[in-house]
Specification:
Helix content is 4%, strand content 39%. The chain has 161 residues and is mainly beta. It has a domain at 25-136: Deoxyuridine triphosphatase (dUTPase) (Deoxyuridine 5'-Triphosphate Nucleotidohydrolase, Chain A).
Length: 161
């Protein structure tokens, strides 16, 4: 995957390149066959995310599907996660929250909460299950990106309601 690089001068005035957007394989998943997400065509917006494990997804039950990945991005960006349309249309699969939102300050494991609307479906390890789209976002007037509380957790870490 080609990533944009940010040039940064260190204390010793050495110019270095720092990765600003992309994915990393988590510790413990390095030898599990996971590959970094890629775009499948020249004009695809989304990077295909694969399942890191076999998971049976049942109707009316929430299954957490691990990807073995974490993402990194600039402070004014977000990674939006969408179900692959073929899984939704052919097999009734959906993300429980509709669209996943991975904020720039979340450096943990990307785990997808999924359910099946019509029965059971077995997700196999390595199956492409979702797409991640990096996007810029705009704060409202008077709000500054990077000002506020520090993230301390995963699902619901900014509050239940």
């Amino acid at each position: 995957m080609v990533t944009r690089q940010l040039l940064k001068t260190t204390k010793s005035n050495i110019l270095t390149a720092q990765m600003t957007r992309g994915f990393e394989i988590l510790t413990g998943y390095e030898n599990s066959g996971i590959i970094l997400p890629t775009r499948k065509t020249a004009l695809s917006a989304g990077y295909d995310l694969q399942s890191a494990e076999n998971v049976l997804v049942s109707n009316k039950k929430i299954s957490l599907v691990p990807t073995g990945l974490k993402a990194f991005m600039l402070p004014d960006e977000v990674l939006m996660i969408y179900i692959r349309s073929s899984l939704a249309v052919k097999y009734g699969m959906t993300l429980v929250n509709g669209v996943g939102v991975i904020d720039a300050d979340y450096g943990g494991h990307i785990i997808l909460p999924m359910t099946n609307l019509i029965g059971e479906f077995e997700i196999k390890q390595g199956m492409r299950i979702a797409q991640g789209v990096f996007q810029k976002y705009l704060p409202i007037d008077g709000d500054e990106i990077g000002i506020g509380a520090i993230r301390t957790g995963r699902f619901g870490s900014t509050g239940i309601y």
